[in-house]
Amino acid sequence: MDRSEMNRRLWCCGILAWIAMPVGLALLQAAESTANSHNRRLPAVVIAASHPRADAEPASGADAASAPAAGGGFRVQLSSDAHLQQVGIASDDPFSGQNELSLGHLLEAVEARNPSLQAMIAAWQAASQRYWQVISLDDPMFGFMVSTADVGAPEGQSGYVFDFSQQIPWFGKRRIRGHAAQARADMAQGEIGVTKLELIQMTRAAFYQYYVARRQVEVNQKTGQLMQEFRDIALGKYAADQAMQQDVLQAELELADLAGRRSEVTRDEKIAIARINTLLLRPVDFPLPPPPAKIEIADETPSIEILQQAALQSRPELFSILASIREEEANLALAQKDYLPDMQLVARYDAAAMIDEQMRPMVGMNVNVPVWQRKRTAAIDEAWARIRQRRAEYESRMAEISFQVQSAFERLAQGREVVHLFVDRILPATEANLQAAQANYTTGKVDFLRLLDAERQYNSQQERYQQAVGEYQTRLAELERAIGGLLPEETQ
Description:
The protein is α+β, with helices and mostly antiparallel strands. The protein contains twelve helices and six strands.
């Protein structure tokens, strides 16, 4: 066989291959053009999902594959490439120049630095890349065979075969696989939201622990100053033979007790600082600005009905479960499509079996024959069972979220009542009682033990008030975690 004849046959094989491929290439281009508008979201993303009833009948076949992702309540916002940088132990100070530690700035710094959130973002990015892998066609196959009898054969008696094939799934299967992959990526997005809410709650709890510890240190210092004044009064009365030495000794003992309590609250403050620095991924003893001098207590909370509705719209756990339902519905549609055969388009040039040169170019198609029905029926039954499982998980989680919102709402209301009780009644009474005891002891109307009891009540109630404020704010953080975000602004 001369070179010109070989070239002619090779060109013939190439032309036949391109004739056999247009259907598969057209399907691939259509899938890619559809996906381009849906998947180019890196690194910034906004996730949205509403929460319809989980007992709705799933779509089957192409309907399930073409159903759009739900849109509505849940939001997770990721910022720019700073979120994707590799994070190590950071020693820089995001609060440099600030006179007090702001909760808002602290939350932003923790979100930007904490590795647990970065891990969930990386997991979502990995899941989002599955879409392109499952919708793409398999690589085409090119084959060449030559007869071993050609060795030493006369010219013109060689035998060889060229073939070119492309596997093409049945129409709609790749699209369904793509929607299943998108649903799986949405599940990973929901986990980002869960991690972010947990991180916010931990940060707020540490912030309020820091606030309470610092306020209790101040209460201890103020009480110590008062106790020193009372000791000076006792010393003066003892020098004038108007009081016993025991009054002076009792004052010294109380000052020692206050010093011991000061070490305890200072320890609590250092622990809170270490916890905040751990969340910021920097040395635990790194200095922080002081917490705010006062935290306001809201007089009202949105109604429980509004909070329950906000939770159903915003909780990322519900978004993740709904995404898992969509994935299982896509798997059901794919199992139903499995009753239909896949195709393999083939173009071949056979110079071994065909003597007539005009009969050597061939095009054809291979299909699998889905005759084994039991495994396909089992796959459909499995998909239905998993859909029922996900729906049951959705209903169970909704009930659990409703309980969490209700219990957090009641605890917050009780915490607000306690704070108002301290502000309106307890603190004014203890201050008035201490002032009266000091005046009466100075004039000799009561003994030093009565003054000491008044001082102890004052110190105890001041500490309990600061604890009540911190507990209220912690319960507010729990309620906002339960509803999946901040309290509705229009009702605050």
